Amino acid sequence: MHEAERNPFLSGPVFKPLLKFMLPVLLANLLQAMYSAVDLMVIGRFAAADTLQLANAAVGTGSMIMVMVTFVITGLAMGATVVLGQYIGAQDRENASRVIGSTICIFVVLAALLTLIMELLAPAFAARMNAPSVEMTTLYIRICGGGLFFITAYNVISGIFRGIGNSRLPLLFVGIACVVNIALGLITVYVLHWDVAGVAVSTITAQAVSVLHSLLVIKRTALPFDVSPRLIRFHRGLTGKILKAGVPLAFLDLLTNLSFVVINSVANQLGPDAAAWAGIASGYSVDNKLTTFTMIIPTAFLQSMAVFTAQNVGAGNRDRIQKGLRYILITAVGVGILLALLCEFGGAAMASVFTDDAETIYYAAQYLKGYAADCLICATMLTLLGYFNGCGHSTFVLVQGLIGSFVVRIPIVLLLQNYEQVNLAHLGLGCSSATIASLLICIGYYIVKTKRGTMLPPSLHTDTA
Q1: Do the Cβ atoms of 422 and 416 come closer than 8 Å?
Q2: Do the Cβ atoms of 165 and 21 come closer than 8 Å?
Q3: Which of 5, 66, 205, 310 is the most exposed place for a label (fewest CB within 10 A)?
Q4: H-assigned helices in 295-317
């Protein structure tokens, strides 16, 4: 049987296989967000009352650093996902196997480097972000940084499975991590009273359990590539191709999240006096988690569109790519409207899931009112970025992200902090300005490249029927 007949991404209906792939991605993103949010929920409910706001701010600020690092990993992993997807679409098992070998080598080196950076620079990160408790924040970052090997392994394994069109197994892996993290979080904080250290230990332990389970699954799963020790090395041409696709995305994610670190630092010093800083910082820490939840569906659009496009680029199905893009864009507009309404009118209700502290809830809801503008268009913008990633235009993705973050978002936020009456709602609106700018740039790029006929690269397809 021809591979295209077995792969629903490459033949037959377009929207149904996209939806079937996207739903597990969406659920995995939801569980990943819950996995991350458990730390703050447990601290918000069970930490000692006299240090609750400080612990809340420490976990929120520290997890901001860890999210930035994780996004660098997932950005680089997306490069491997796209390259692997192209060879899967082209039915090239040999090169797909070499992509896996090169990917393993790249990420072993990356994990070691990031671990060293987190352990050495944790105090500097906490201080630069104006954390209300530098000591608590440093502790959280160092413990989580010690588990970066497992965080890296999970994201790489999930990216590989998505690259071959299997989004169900990553859902299983993160589901296991989520359950373990909740159980351990309750034990370490509620029973053992480890507070910030407890949630950090729970996080990395849960990730380790998930990775070990995923390795057992790989041994029992039929894969469209070979995993062999002889292939685990830096294959010169393919390593360069993975890095060319992934480094711009990783760099973009690093700088984009760095811009949010700057915003976090500004938020931690808003307010008329030092007495208000802990409450505002605690509220913004909750917002860090809530905005992660609002990104669940838009991120699923990006990941699904990238894999769908990459596989069909490999197979040379140009019309099919355009049809998939139209379906996802229409869906993204509707999702954006719903997310914007949720942030505008449901901020307090969402924040109350994480804490009972009235001051924290008030400030969290305040930020979300401004952030609603971002939610309105983010799904559309990320769908286009997924399409560009799948087509191999990762350099453009980097450029538009740099413009959005460093020409628009950071200057506006730094300008806002100089006004005495500025609040978190203004900060949320300032953050949204970058997404608006990026969407306009993406639309312009799409129009120009489509008119010139240079959007889609040549097919990699070689018929092996």
Answers
A1: yes
A2: yes
A3: 5
A4: 296-315
The radius of gyration of the chain from alpha carbons, rounded to an integer in Å, stands at: 22
Are 43 and 59 a contacting pair, CB within 8 Å? yes
pLDDT tens digits for range 133-186:
889 999 999 999 999 999 899 888 988 888 888 888 988 998 898 889 889 989
Sign of the Cα torsion 318, 247, 63, 435 reads negative
pLDDT at 227 over 90: no
18-40: burial string, b at 16+ Cβ within 10 Å, e else: beebbebbbbbbbbbbbbbbbbb
Tokens of 322: 């355009």
Which helix (H) or strand (E) covers residue 98, if one does?
helix 93-128
Q: Count Cα neighbours of 435 within 13 Å in the Cβ-side half-sphere.
A: 23
Q: What is the pLDDT of residues 325-350, one digit of tens each?
A: 999 999 999 999 999 999 999 989 99
The mean pLDDT value of the chain amounts to 86
Q: What is the pLDDT of residue 33?
A: 75
- 349/392 Cα distance (integer angstroms): 41
The pLDDT score that the predictor gives to residue 271 is 59
Residue-level pLDDT at 105: 94
Amino acid at 253: D
396: number of Cβ within 10 Å: 18
CB 310 within 8 A of CB 86: yes
Distant-in-sequence, close-in-space partners of 395: CB < 8 Å, separation ≥ 6: 248
Task: Average the pLDDT over 383-404 and give the result.
Answer: 90
List CB contacts of 455: < 8 A, sequence separation 6 or more: 391, 393, 446, 449
Query: Which pLDDT value is given to residue 5?
Result: 46
CA separation for the pair 436, 428 (Å, rounded): 13
User: Which stretch of DSSP H or E encloses residue 201?
Assistant: helix 196-219
| CA dist 369 → 88, 104, 429 (Å) | 43, 42, 8
φ/ψ bin of 437: left (φ > 0), alpha (ψ from -120 to 50), beta (otherwise): alpha
Give the torsion through C-alpha atoms of 67, 73, 79, 80, to 10 deg: -130
Average pLDDT over residues 256-269: 73
